[in-house]
């Protein structure tokens, strides 16, 4: 039950960040939809921190593990999709939960599960 609550909070945070960015970055209809994908990672993480600190901490751990394991940084759009598509990326959601529980051992184990598939940013 607790993991469902953490997952729901993380997804609500991601949705809130998307709404906040959409409202703050509202542009004329002529602007291509890809503008939302151009949000700087620092801004996205900053909004997550304001809404759900555990989601921000878990996302940072996920980003760091991805960089270490895959040798490249994850794009903001890819992190947003990992956070909000369906039930969210299971590894990311588990890292957020581990962050909430202050369980660094579990976070380290989860970091070894990150898949290094290259996903094209939409």
Textual characterization of the structure:
It contains 6 helices and no strands. The chain has 122 residues and is mostly helical. The protein has one domain (2-24, 36-111). Helix 1 (2-24) crosses helix 5, helix 2 (41-51) packs antiparallel against helix 3 (53-70) and helix 5 (90-100) runs antiparallel to helix 6. The radius of gyration is 14 Å and the shape is globular. Residues 17-33 have low confidence and may be disordered.
Brief digest:
With about 120 residues, this protein is an all-alpha fold. It has helices at about 1-25, 40-50, 55-70, 75-85, 90-100, 105-110. The chain is globular.
Structural class: mainly alpha
Instruction: Sketch the major β-sheet.
Output: none
Low-confidence stretches: 17-33
Structural domain tally:
1
Query: What is the total tally of β strands?
Result: 0
Structural Rg:
14 Å
Distance between the termini: 33 Å
Mean pLDDT over the full residue set: 79
Helix content: 55-70%
| Molecular shape | globular
Beta-strand content bin: under 5%
Order of helices and strands: HHHHHH
Helical run tally: 6
SSE order and pairing:
Blueprint: H1 2-24, H2 41-51, H3 53-70, H4 76-84, H5 90-100, H6 104-111
Overview features:
mainly alpha, globular, 122 residues, 6 helices
């Amino acid at each position: 039950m607790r993991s469902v609550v953490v997952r729901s909070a993380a997804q609500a945070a991601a949705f809130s960040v998307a709404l906040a960015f959409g409202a703050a970055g509202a542009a004329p209809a002529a602007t291509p939809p890809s503008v939302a994908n151009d949000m700087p990672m620092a801004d996205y993480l900053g909004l997550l921190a304001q809404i759900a600190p555990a989601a921000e901490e878990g996302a940072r751990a996920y980003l760091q593990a991805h960089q270490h394991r895959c040798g490249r940084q994850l794009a903001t759009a890819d992190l947003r999709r990992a956070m909000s598509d369906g039930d969210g990326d299971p590894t990311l959601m588990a890292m957020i939960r581990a962050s909430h529980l202050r369980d660094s051992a579990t976070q380290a184990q989860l970091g070894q599960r990150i898949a290094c598939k290259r996903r094209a940013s939409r």
